[in-house]
């Protein structure tokens, strides 16, 4: 008696599906359930403990009228734009240099990728020492005889974000470089040969041929870096704790402050929801380009 293939289809890879059940249940209960719980209670006046006394959009009105939240958004936008442009730009440039089949490539790639293996707390503490005027770069340069040299970005409200940016670039650029390098190695060698035969300069080949072909790689890197920027917290805590004053406050610190220090869960949930919305704004266009665009194509 012949077996109906359609009946057997749900039982294909049965053990793999059973093994994936705990992960699926965890995702549904913890992540999806926690997200819905957070969004729901952001419309309440919860203080120390959650309570179902709904107040509509009051928490969001207070949020967007709070100068600390507005400062956090402004700081994140400045840091985010600079971090996106410089991380992707430097990562691609390093990948291009690494793609020239240099000697000891594996060693250089490992050195560049090593900072990404460190936690942001460790990175923040290391760069706090490096940028400390009494211990780091300023102290070293003055020891060489340049007594008028000043380099103390973390103590100046106008430059503290750039001090954070240095640490962020040091940690993330190597990771971006490796992704870009993988994309460059995926370019067909015949394209390079055709460009050389046609006499096209190498830089034009990169700008007009290679970069458009690497669009999916750039989009993936953009999503990864942007998502990390929105969640920025531990690097700031380790380096500046949000100071001097509020010059390096970021949204994640605002959430922590209101949920655990000010004991205002409703306000913390509202800020968390706005951060979630920011992540969705980044992820939805990426998902559409990666999946929806292919189907329409």
TrEMBL record:
<dbReference type="InterPro" id="IPR000515">
    <property type="entry name" value="MetI-like"/>
</dbReference>
<keyword id="KW-0812">Transmembrane</keyword>
<feature type="domain" description="ABC transmembrane type-1">
    <location>
        <begin position="73"/>
        <end position="286"/>
    </location>
</feature>
<feature type="transmembrane region" description="Helical">
    <location>
        <begin position="269"/>
        <end position="289"/>
    </location>
</feature>
<dbReference type="InterPro" id="IPR035906">
    <property type="entry name" value="MetI-like_sf"/>
</dbReference>
<keyword id="KW-0472">Membrane</keyword>
<keyword id="KW-1003">Cell membrane</keyword>
<feature type="transmembrane region" description="Helical">
    <location>
        <begin position="21"/>
        <end position="43"/>
    </location>
</feature>
<feature type="transmembrane region" description="Helical">
    <location>
        <begin position="205"/>
        <end position="230"/>
    </location>
</feature>
<feature type="transmembrane region" description="Helical">
    <location>
        <begin position="160"/>
        <end position="184"/>
    </location>
</feature>
<dbReference type="InterPro" id="IPR051393">
    <property type="entry name" value="ABC_transporter_permease"/>
</dbReference>
<comment type="similarity">
    <text>Belongs to the binding-protein-dependent transport system permease family.</text>
</comment>
<protein>
    <submittedName>
        <fullName>Sugar ABC transporter permease</fullName>
    </submittedName>
</protein>
<feature type="transmembrane region" description="Helical">
    <location>
        <begin position="76"/>
        <end position="98"/>
    </location>
</feature>
<keyword id="KW-1133">Transmembrane helix</keyword>
<feature type="transmembrane region" description="Helical">
    <location>
        <begin position="110"/>
        <end position="130"/>
    </location>
</feature>
<keyword id="KW-0813">Transport</keyword>
<dbReference type="Pfam" id="PF00528">
    <property type="entry name" value="BPD_transp_1"/>
</dbReference>
């Amino acid at each position: 008696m012949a077996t109906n293939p359609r009946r057997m289809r749900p039982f294909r890879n049965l053990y793999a599906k059973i093994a994936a059940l705990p992960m699926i249940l965890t995702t549904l209960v913890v992540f999806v359930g926690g997200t819905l719980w957070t969004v729901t209670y952001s419309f309440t006046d919860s203080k120390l403990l959650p309570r179902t006394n709904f107040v509509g959009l009051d928490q969001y009105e207070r949020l967007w009228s709070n100068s600390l939240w507005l400062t956090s958004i402004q700081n994140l936008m400045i840091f985010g734009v600079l971090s996106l442009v410089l991380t992707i730009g430097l990562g691609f440039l390093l990948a291009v240099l690494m793609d020239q089949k240099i000697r000891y490539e594996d060693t250089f790639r490992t050195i560049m990728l090593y900072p990404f293996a460190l936690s942001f707390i460790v990175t923040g503490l290391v760069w706090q020492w490096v940028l400390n005027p009494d211990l780091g770069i300023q102290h070293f340069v003055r020891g060489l005889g340049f007594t008028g040299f000043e380099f103390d970005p973390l103590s100046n409200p106008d430059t503290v974000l750039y001090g954070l940016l240095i640490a962020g670039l040091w940690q993330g650029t190597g990771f971006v470089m490796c992704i870009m390098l993988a994309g460059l190695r995926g370019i067909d060698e015949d394209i390079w040969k055709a460009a050389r035969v046609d006499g096209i300069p190498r830089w034009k080949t990169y700008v007009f041929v290679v970069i458009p072909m690497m669009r999916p790689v750039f989009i993936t890197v953009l999503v990864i870096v942007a998502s990390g920027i929105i969640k920025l917290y531990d690097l700031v805590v380790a380096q500046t704790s949000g100071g001097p004053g509020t010059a390096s406050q970021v949204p994640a610190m605002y959430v922590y402050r209101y949920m655990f220090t000010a004991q205002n869960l409703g306000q913390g949930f509202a800020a968390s929801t706005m951060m979630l919305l920011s992540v969705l704004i980044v992820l939805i266009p990426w998902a559409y380009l990666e999946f929806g665009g292919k189907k329409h194509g």
